[in-house]
Design brief:
The complex is a heterodimer of chains A (about 375) and B (about 130).
Chain A (H helix, E strand, L loop, with lengths): L5 E8 L10 H16 L8 E4 L15 H7 L6 E4 L8 H11 L5 E9 H6 L27 H16 L3 H15 L13 H5 L3 E3 L2 E2 L8 E10 L11 E9 L13 H10 L10 E3 L5 H10 L8 H5 L18 H5 L5 H11 L14 E6 L5 E7 L2
Parallel strand pairs in A: 2-3, 2-4, 9-10
Antiparallel strand pairs in A: 1-7, 1-8, 4-7, 5-6, 8-11, 10-11
Chain B lengths: L11 H5 L6 E6 L5 E2 L14 E6 L2 E10 L11 E8 L6 E7 L11 E9 L2 E8 L2
Parallel strand pairs in B: 6-8
Antiparallel strand pairs in B: 1-2, 1-3, 4-5, 4-7, 5-6, 7-8
Classes of the chains: A alpha/beta (about 375), B mainly beta (about 130).
Chain lengths: ~375, ~130
């Protein structure tokens, strides 16, 4: 341990649902309360707030609560805060908070991500979809060709992997099957019924080679991670989890101009920050908004070589709770719901503290990796219980 | 019905080149790098001496997907979305549709040629297989 390091203290999560009527601010409060309670902190001790992507007025379901609102609503006196979408994906908000506490800008920072996409979809009068006569920015390069959803962009990376390295649908299925099996053991997960290989193989295609079960689902929920300074650990009552390394990248912001998704660069960079090796990792919580992104993360982080992801997960034993690398033990976004990045860091901390209940992995895990992002954005955290 | 781009100084040459049957990409006149999406500066040498340059209009399917999901009630499915590597413009890829053939006839490595589809003041560069 070092006073110069950043640590995760409390973590919290609201209920995870669809078409919830509890307001997004109050869902955020639920997650804040749980995190404060675990850390043994009061709201008066919080002096920083960090979020992704901030309030998005034109698309409130995607991000209904910003740092501004949380600071004001909860009476936080912040010496540092930040919220925005121009960052290396969702967990970039945790990276920013870690830098803030390491440089003395704050001592305890609430990092949060609140999503309200299912509720917004069901209440269009309250949450109107953005209406545009014409598209601009990055959308103009995709929307005119009806490449509207990120699934169509991710599917093209997956298709190339299938063609170049021979990955099969049966192999890829293990991301969804494993996520759903783990979600069945997570009382908060959105989808709690396991998924069979037959159901997966007969599912309707969304964007080949990705089928319905390769996609996460719109969710209403909030997740909170409190980042605390190394010299403030005497103020918290839970076991601190050290941020042992963090990395992120962006190069070509457009999804279609890069050879590889950004995770491949970030995975390599993560290990440059630490003496730990991939073999030291006890559990991987990696972004699975679409299943193939998780395969890419496993390759990127060096758990297997580029192109070997399909073989690595084949049969699912290796990534099961009792396997050599338990994966997305809360269900991932495919099983637990589209928490949008923060669920991975939350679960890494839960596992490192031995609080996973029915889904707790064995053998006293001490090191976890948590990632967010797909396409041109990527963030990776290496989390250690010393 | 397709969503259409909002035209501006940077993208106008790309979206209207089809009026003259020409696929135009921004190119740095100093270091010859192609710049896409189009911007008024070269991302390799930072020169501002960039201008739209016509390319052959052929390319290769780098990767693709067959989209089956109706993202709006009126959308006709299935259709092919592809990423085409543009001949003569190293490093530039265009997301587009492959038209004029069954969806299961498209594969990585297929040679394709641009086929413009006009809607209002925009010429969308779609591609079809070269037979």
């Amino acid at each position: 341990m070092s006073t110069h390091d950043a640590y995760i203290s409390g973590v919290g999560q609201s209920e995870i649902g669809t078409k919830l009527t509890r307001s997004p601010l109050l869902l955020t409060l639920d997650a804040v309360r749980e995190a404060l309670d675990e850390a043994g902190l009061t709201i008066g001790q919080i002096d920083g707030v960090s979020t992704y992507p901030g309030r998005v007025p034109a698309f409130l379901g995607f991000s209904p609560v910003g740092a501004d609102e949380l600071v004001d609503a909860l009476g936080i006196r912040a010496t540092w805060y930040a919220g925005g979408g121009e960052i290396t994906s969702q967990l970039g908000a945790v990276v920013a908070a870690a830098m803030a506490v390491r440089t003395g800008q704050a001592r305890h920072v609430i990092c949060f991500r609140t999503v309200y996409e299912a509720a917004a979809l069901s209440r269009p009068d309250e949450y109107p979809r953005p209406q545009r006569d014409r598209v601009d920015g990055m959308s103009q390069w995709f929307a005119p060709f009806n490449a509207i959803s990120a699934v169509t962009w991710t599917a093209q990376y997956a298709m190339r992997h299938f063609k170049k390295y021979g990955m099969t649908r049966e192999q890829l299925a293990q991301i969804a099957l494993t996520g759903r099996a783990h979600a069945a053991l997570n009382p908060r997960a959105l989808v709690r019924e396991p998924l069979s290989m037959d159901e997966y193989m007969s599912a309707r295609m969304i964007s080949s080679p990705l089928c319905l079960f390769d996609c996460d689902r719109f969710t209403d929920a909030s997740t909170v991670i409190i980042v605390s300074a190394g010299d403030a650990l005497d103020e918290i009552k839970c076991t601190p989890v050290r941020i042992a390394a963090m990395a992120g990248s962006v190069e070509r912001l457009s999804w279609d101009q890069a050879e590889q998704m950004a995770c491949y660069a970030t995975g390599k960079d993560l290990w440059k920050q630490t003496d730990y090796k991939p073999a030291d990792v006890d559990t991987a919580q990696v972004y699975d908004g679409f299943s193939f992104q998780a395969v890419a993360w496993l390759e990127s982080l060096g758990f297997c070589e580029l192109g070997e992801g399909g073989q690595f997960i084949e049969g699912g034993k290796r990534i099961a709770l009792d396997g050599e690398l338990p994966l997305n033990t809360f269900g991932g976004q495919i099983g637990a719901g589209r928490l949008h990045g923060f669920g991975f860091a939350h679960e890494a901390v839960v596992q490192l503290r031995g609080k996973g209940g029915a889904r707790q992995i064995p053998n006293d895990p001490k090191l976890a990796v948590a990632t967010s992002g797909g396409g041109p954005l990527a963030t990776a955290l290496l989390l250690a219980r010393d | 019905m397709r969503a259409l781009p909002k035209l501006d100084a940077d993208n106008r040459a790309f979206w209207t080149g089809g009026a003259e049957g020409s696929l135009r990409l921004h190119q740095c006149q100093d270091c010859k790098t192609f710049i896409h999406p189009p911007r008024p500066v070269c991302r390799k040498c930072l020169s501002e001496n960039v201008r739209p340059t016509a390319v052959a209009g052929t390319g290769v399917v780098d990767t693709f997907t067959v989209n089956h999901q109706k993202w709006s009630p009126t959308m006709e499915v299935p259709f092919v979305i592809a990423r085409v590597a543009v001949d003569g413009a190293p490093g530039v890829y265009l997301t587009t549709n492959i038209v004029g053939c069954p969806v299961d006839a498209v594969d990585v490595g297929d040679r394709v040629r641009v086929k413009f589809e006009q809607q209002d003041d925009v010429w969308l560069p779609l591609f079809e297989k070269v037979s």
